[in-house]
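A reminder before we start the practical. When you read a complex entry, don't treat the lines as separate problems. The point of joint prediction is that each chain is placed relative to the others, so the output describes one connected object in space. Small molecules and nucleic acid strands, if listed, are placed in the same frame. In the example below there are two entries. Take a minute to note the order of the lines before looking further.
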Amino acid sequence: MTKSSLSFVRRDMLAPQSAPVTERGAVKWLRENLFSSIGNSVLTILGLLVLFWIVQASLPWLLNGVWQANSLGECRTIIAATAGEGASGACWAMIAQRWNQFMFGFYPKTDYWRPILSFALMFVALTPVLYYGLRRAAMLMVGTVGVLAVLSLALVQTDGWHDALVAAVMLGLFAVAAIMPKKLVWVTLVFPAVGFFLLWGGSVWGPVGTLFGFGIWVAIWLVLQSRLGVVVPAAIGLVAASLWWLVLQTSVTTALHGIAPLGLTAIDSDQFGGFLLAFVIGVTAISASLPIGILLALGRQSDMLLIKTLSVGFIEFVRGVPLITMLFTASLLLQYFLPPRTNFDLILRVIILVSLFASAYIAEVIRGGLAALPRGQYEAADALGLDYWQAQRLIIMPQALKISIPGIVSSFIGLFKDTTLVALVGLADPLQGITKIVRADIAWKGIYWEPFIFVGAIFFLFCFGMSRYSMYLERKLKTDHR
Amino acid sequence: MALAADTPKDSFRLSMLIYDTRFRAITIQVIVLILVLLGIGWLVNNTIENLAAKDKDINFSFLFSRAGYDIDQQLIPYTNDSTHGRALVIGLLNTLVVAFFACIFATLIGVFAGVLRLSKNWLVGRLMTVYVEVFRNVPLLLWILLAFVIFSETMPEPKDFKTTQAMVDAGTTPAAQMILFDSVAITNRGTNIPAPLLERPLGGTEAFGVPINFSVLATLLVIAGSIWVNYLVRRRAKAVQEDTGIRPVTWWKSLLILIAPTLALLIAMGFHLEVPAFPMGENGVSKGFNFVGGINVAHSFTALLIALSLYHGTYIAEAVRSGILAISRGQTEAAYALGLRPGRTMSLIILPQALRVIIPPLISQFLNITKNTTLGVAISYLDLKGTLGGITLNQTGRELECMLLMMLIYLILSLLISSGMNVYNTAVKLKER
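Here is the predicted structure of the whole assembly.
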């Protein structure tokens, strides 16, 4: 090839140019994400129309909202005065006025410090479960909850000395968290009794007696465990504790109450209501249903035919009937199945049946987790010489529970949402019970969007929060495929 | 010298019941059995004592006595003179009908939202995410109550649809208008929809107190027959394709077979729709107080249907989304490499695999829909819970019998649905060794 055959050779580099305008910045993003094809463009335009329609319908209504009024009529007058005749507007004043009822139902106003303190203690009790022995996390949690509790107490206006009491309790717990965070576990252990005592009131000796029964159980187990293994001392302890609970406790606590009548005003169950009720039922049922669900799942996996049959029968029965029938069983049928003249609290009955209901679903979720474990894990545990409970506790459950976190949390979310159904057996839940009462009030007759949006927003906040937390937990615990 | 084959003769000690794994399982099971029997005995004994104390017995004869209450929505004839047993059947049918339609609508909404959530379109994807998260994280009861309140408190009264003399004179129209080409009117008392009517019905008969309508039966038979013939045509087309490699064109045959016979039958029977309307007086002035003709659908049904469909639609959307995401991208690429077009790839490669993942949660959602129809009790929808577990229970005072019967019926329903699911699961399970 000769030199002359080359007609043109570039001797200097071209200056770099920026990408064409359709391939960069917002235009590129729009093209790729909204208008990539004709179908996509049509979808985008339809989506914009829907969005526009929603905003147009709701934005003026939200912006014209009124926060200070005493009745729906007054709200409408204010809206007509400020936004012009015929304008629509939300009447949030209803929420401002009925806030306490939505939160506490008919709980006596002077005793609001009790649910607030027990709600705060619940988070303190949760702290060791979530961050065992982590000083900073425990301090942060207890401190935040304490400040929030005192603030919310100041907002619902109770008298000074209960504020001081709550502040002192929270301060003390903060000190415990700061000095020996591991000791907070004791709060977790006694919280069920303390929470019950705070919420329902009555004599202090009842919950103390119940706790004492558990104390007997643990003491017998600790003493005999070294000689007799795990199962037998547990059974002996249970028998002893049951003897205490069924035979001795009532007379002893009555006597003690006669000597030292300590206690709080007793609150009837029909005074519970609003989100207080939803939380009491939700939290108790959630914490009770997880251990029962684990036991049921293990029973379903068991080699023992009888145990397996019983577990399968229970799980399939509960999953086959609607929750409402269980609730009506609690309110109508339980009186037939219990000894004559026993009549215990409706909330307690509902909690028991809701827990059993949820535990069947959780059992199925955990069974999925157990089934996902490779067979080798079980065999490795056997090869190490671990017995059944050790293998479950150290090898199987940590992995199976980790796999089933999303399912467990979505069961919890379902359970929390289902607490609204207790309205159908006559309890004043925030949705049906309290909203009905508010809407029956002559001042607020005809209001419907505001209470439903308010209650829905709070449920959304908690359920969405739980589902996001479970996603975070799932990512945090993911140890494989990094 | 002792041989190795000689097993040491250990005598049986009592402690072996607990510490020897050969016996421990039996010990535990015997103890559990005794406890369970004791527990059952205790419950039964309590029940007998309680029943005796209240002077009651277990007796299902109330099912054959007069019910004495009315039910708005009834699929088979029922009056307040009918028995409680018949009220139970009406309730069960109401449960099933709302569950059936809710399953269909929830599936449609769910597939729509699930596919759109995966769409490359950013805006539509976000809108669908918002829909799914909002509806999923708020109790179903709220949606039911809200839908019911909106229908029964914001919709116009029937009289707002009337044309008065003053309106005719002034040339104006009534305050409220019917929708969907003047065929549907939503009032605060219910939704009036057109009723399908036949001029020349085929008659009917009654068997075991259940009316059998020959016209409906004939239509169903013809539809089933056309589906079967269509299946034959498609099978033949497939055989031809296997033989020759060329698939005969079938779409127009299928269309004809599926539509023509049913259409012919309906025309022969004189099918027409009766549109609800006010009776017309002179010069276009309406008379009467409410709509005449058509079917009045109670708001409790509509609200329950809408709420169930929207709420469970979100769960189905998630199932569809995860089903499609579960199929690895390599499957699509392999199909393209084989030269399949996108439509065929979807129908032959992706869908059959995705359905295996989608169908089980879908069916469990159907189960949940069926169980959640009981929430209709909050808006007085008379389903099984409303009739048997509601009014019948309160009237007769037989809590034990009513609740047991109701639980049994729900249990049978769910076992039927879940056994259907098991059959499907075994059919599509990956056959691997």
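Discuss with your neighbour: The longest strand of chain A covers residues 202-203. What might explain this?
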